[in-house]
Design goal:
The protein is about 20% helix and about 40% strand. By secondary structure, the protein is of the alpha+beta class. The strands form two sheets. A five-stranded mixed β-sheet has the order 1-2-3-5-6. The longest helix has 17 residues. It starts with a helix and ends in a 13-residue tail after the last helix.
């Protein structure tokens, strides 16, 4: 993936995330396999009008763009292969990790969660299937559930007033 392709993919996901009410925080320094964090926000009416407030519901994203990431068809979408080092990082990450594939021609974006339930070992490496029906544009409820899965393991969230 060229630098231009990488930047176009990241910017496409940033735009789609913001339209879906998720703050997008790129992680450009010491990229070790997480390109961005997203946080669900909600609009709150206050003394100064409407403001967007983070909810603390976070997800880590690995973003890949370009035709090469769509060159390994699967029964339901595409296979995304990755190294054992990435598997260790993503499966042990404090946040849920999603892989997002960006078709730069159509600007459509597809995602899959990296978890014990989705990862398949392929000898020394790993892969996940990124389904064609899991698009970023329609991910709202799914992403919120993923980002909220750890709740209940700590103190309950304080409601906004």
């Amino acid at each position: 993936m060229t630098e231009r392709t990488s930047r176009l993919a990241v910017k496409a996901v940033e735009e789609a995330s913001l339209h879906a009410d998720w703050f997008f925080r790129e992680q450009p320094i010491s990229d070790q396999g997480i390109d961005a964090h997203i946080e669900k926000f909600q609009s709150v009416t206050g003394k100064k009008g409407i403001d967007e407030v983070g909810t603390g519901r976070l997800i880590a994203l690995q973003i890949k763009g370009g035709a090469s990431y769509f060159s390994r068809p699967s029964p339901n979408g595409w296979w995304f292969p990755f190294s054992a080092r990435k598997a260790q990082l993503w499966l042990g990450h404090a946040l849920p990790v999603l892989v997002v594939l960006v078709d730069l021609g159509s600007r459509e974006q597809y995602w899959q969660r990296v978890s014990a339930a989705t990862v398949i070992k392929t000898g020394k490496n790993y892969k996940v299937e990124v389904p064609r029906d899991q698009t970023v544009a329609s991910a709202g409820t799914d992403w919120l559930e993923i980002a909220s899965a750890g709740l209940g393991q700590s103190d309950p969230p304080v409601p906004f007033e």
